[in-house]
Specification:
2 copies of one chain form a homodimer. Chain A is α+β, with helices and mostly antiparallel strands. In chain A, 24% of the residues lie in helices and 31% in strands. The first copy, chain A, has helices at residues 53-65, 130-147, 161-172, 178-187, and strands at residues 9-20, 23-30, 40-41, 44-46, 74-87, 90-100, 116-119, 159-160, 191-198, 206-211. In chain A, strands 1, 2, 3, 4, 5, 6 and 7 form a 7-stranded mixed sheet that branches. A 3-stranded antiparallel sheet of chain A has the order 8-10-9. Chains A and B meet through strand 5 and strand 6 of A and strand 5 of B. Chain A binds a DNA duplex through helix 4.
DNA sequence: ACAAAAGTGTTAAGAATACACCCATGT
DNA sequence: ACATGGGTGTATTCTTAACACTTTTGT
């Protein structure tokens, strides 16, 4: 009864975020071929037989950008888009994953596709419906950091409260009150002070903190 | 370069919830064939070429249960599961949709598959990983009703505050305080009183309310 | 001594919680 | 008159929001 079944094409795409100069940035590739030649697109590709979508995501990301998913402290399935066909063979369905990291290094000339991070509010011309996907991922990230400890994945192991606040401000796109931010965040007991200080220029050194636990956790009171 | 590409099978599954006798219930089919013959499974099926996953969901749901998606006030993509192959042809990837409705009628003998609603805490033996999927959907529904007006999709147009509270209790699986529930919910200004009453037995009639607007909305203050 | 970022507390308003009795109806 | 579910208010605690000055350092 299903013998005439001819499947849509299954693809995966990765939305990789990190903070660059206190701005939220997303990883894009420059398309070397039609369609959308010269425009920028999310790293992604076909899902091969016998591979989970998550494995396909890891493989395509490594192949096209040199990034290993092991370097991403947090990866999460985002949404499945019935995108416009990216391929003349037909209709494509793309399972997307959001990955968060810090100080991600792109091996120089990993591929001919020139992988680069772009601040989310200064995107180049983006191919397909990828601008929508990035917007969706950004909104999801905004809500994720308000009810979970997901920021840990964007910060170094030791960080200052100012760095933490700046991360929130970069993602949410608005300023937060310093005293209220610190009071609230510390009261959640997600982070603990170390006895180390971050010295950086002609001013008082900042106490370094660390997250108590890494795995994604839901907060007892949602943030902000 | 992608010429040896052989895709996984793309399927869709529907998790349809409604309230039955003040319990949250999910729609299942009895499998008539192997694998898992005699066990119960979510309605679903293959995604055909040229059809979006949402269209495939509507089609398979109508074919297997007689339900029209037009009768579901809220449908939302849930998650994409890399499920165990449901088909000897190979690896299956299932895009799932959650649908909410009320007073859904299953056309008698719509199919040989005996569609029925089961209370989520009294499920029969469920095939595949569908028990996990139902659990996932239930958790998502719990959080959805706390930060959106999604309950509207489970209630009739006019309803009493007690019906509303009972719906929350059925979904969340715990009791709520009547006075606090009413105070909070009314303060959100999502619903308005009508001038009609629900008479039902030997007690004071209950004032009927309606939602001010149907489309899914995020609440100003999250609920509960 | 100055510039620069780190650090810190209080008050007021709003929200959440806990809790018990009267009201309107049908029989 | 009684049984049944509908309806209502207050006091306490916790949370949020608004807001400005002192501290520590490097030059």
């Amino acid at each position: 009864m299903d013998s005439i079944y001819e499947p849509p094409i299954l693809t995966v795409d990765s939305i990789i975020f990190q903070l660059v100069d206190n701005e939220l940035a997303v990883l894009l590739l420059e398309r070397a071929a039609e369609p959308f030649k010269g425009m920028w697109a999310l790293p992604g590709g076909y899902n091969a037989a016998g591979e989970t979508t998550r494995e396909a995501m890891a493989r395509t990301l490594a192949t096209k950008t040199g990034l290993q998913t092991g370097d991403l402290p947090l990866i999460e399935q985002l949404y499945t888009f019935d995108t416009i066909a990216r391929d003349p063979r037909g209709h494509a369905v793309s399972v997307t994953y959001m990955g968060l990291g810090k100080d991600l290094e792109l091996p120089p000339s990993a591929t001919a596709q020139n992988p680069q991070f772009f601040p989310v509010d200064q995107l180049p011309t983006v191919a397909y419906d990828h601008a929508d996907i990035i917007g969706y991922a950004h909104r999801r990230l905004c809500s994720k950091i308000t009810y979970t400890n997901a920021v840990f994945a964007l910060l170094p192991e030791l960080f200052t409260l100012t760095q933490l606040q700046t991360a929130y401000e970069a993602i949410l796109g608005r300023q937060l009150d310093k005293r209220n931010f610190r009071k609230k965040f510390l009261s959640l007991e997600l982070i603990e002070a170390t006895d180390e200080y971050h010295r950086d220029g002609a001013h008082r050194p900042a106490l370094l903190y660390r997250f108590r636990q890494q795995p994604l956790q839901v907060l007892s009171r949602s943030f902000d």
